[in-house]
Amino acid sequence: MKHSNSSLEFLPTMFILVGIPDLEAEHIWLSIPFCLMYIIIFLGNGTILHVIRTDAALHQPMYLFLAMLALAEVGVSASTLPTVLGIFLFGTNEISFDACLLQMFSIHSFSIMESAVLLAMSVDRFVAIYSPLRYTAILTLPRILGTGVIIGLKSIMLMAPLPMLLRRLPFCGHNALSHSYCLHPNLIHLPCEDISINNIYGLFIVTSTFGLDSLLIVISYGCILHTVLHIATGQGRKKALNTCGSHICAVLTYYVPMIGLSLVHRFGHHGSPLLHAMMASAYLFFSPLVNPIVYSIKTKEIRHGIARILSEKRTRV
Fold first, then answer.
1. What tens digit of pLDDT does each residue of 99-122 get?
2. Cα–Cα distance measured from residue 133 to residue 128, given in angstroms and rounded to the nearest whole number
3. Which pTM value belongs to this model?
């Protein structure tokens, strides 16, 4: 361990992760649903990415943004996989300090990307409903790719200072975390000096990303609703709203668990550790697990693409 001036302060070489509190004896059995969950996440999002990549008819703004969403969700899940399966399958509950910071950076960066892509998708739906004839002229391929690059760079640049801010803080013998992965709201409670700068910057990230994104999504849907109400026919209004159904589900599956986890971290200090673990798992895994299923069921073009791939495989066999 790297000691600071005080013998009580140190920079830990390792952090201790936990699986599901009070169920440690059942971890080998709990690994089964977690393995199935990862398989569904990677298979579902991977299938959507493959369908969009191979079907030229799906090289449209809506589906390109969906591909970005799938990539972000794969990134979040891949970031958690080594420690989660390490704990449940092999009982490995230690992670090095640097690896923990890298995992924290990856999880939060991909999560910020996911939020920004959901905002881009809400703007896409507004343009499609408000000006359908100019839809592809407004959302051109260079603009979509540029949006993706900006989202990625913004996420990385916002998150880059957090590991450095944590590195400058001394720890006082506390190196046990509350989850199977490293999250900033959990890590920030371990240092024994003033964490005001970390809290202020963390709050800035939350408000400038998740807070602003969610506000703009609500505004986008207010504009969508206003536009839909001016459509003359009931059938036209229903068709317009149906195009937003999958995206609304994606927004809810992303933001509801996030709000729940934030409330638990802020006000649930004396709550059950099991509640913390379940809310963190819902925040990280619910959206990547559900979204591929929702889009596969509700989006006709994705269904047809999946059916085409399956039929081609049957033909080869």
1. 999 999 999 999 999 999 999 999
2. 8
3. 0.90
CB 169 within 8 A of CB 115: no
**pLDDT of amino acid 308:** 82
The string of pLDDT tens digits covering residues 166-177 is 888 887 767 888
Diameter of the chain measured on Cα atoms: 75
246 and 295 Cβ atoms separated by less than 8 Å? yes
CA distances from 105 to 90, 91, 177, 275, 283 (A): 24, 24, 16, 24, 16
pLDDT tens track for 280-295: 888 889 999 999 999 9
What would the DSSP string read from start to end of the chain?
Answer: -EE-SSTT-EE-SEEE--SSTT-GGGHHHHHHHHHHHHHHHHHHHHHHHHHHHH-GGG-SHHHHHHHHHHHHHHHHHHHHHHHHHHHHHH---EEEHHHHHHHHHHHHHHHHHHHHHHHHHHHHHHHHHH-GGGHHHHS-HHHHHHHHHHHHHHHHHHHTHHHHHHHTS-B-S--B-SSSS--HHHHTTSBSS--HHHHHHHHHHHIIIIIHHHHHHHHHHHHHHHHHHT-SSHHHHHHHHHTTHHHHHHHHHHHHHHHHHHHHHHH-TTS-HHHHHHHHHHHHHHHHHHHHHHHHHH-HHHHHHHHHHHHHHHHH-
Q: What is the pLDDT of residue 187?
A: 87
